[in-house]
Amino acid sequence: MGPDGCVRYIDGVHRTTNRHTLVTELAESGAGDEVIMSIASHASRAMLSRYSHVRMEAKRRALDEIASRQNAADEKRKVEAERQQATISQLALVQ
Question: Cβ(1)–Cβ(8) under 8 Å?
Answer without folding.
Answer: yes
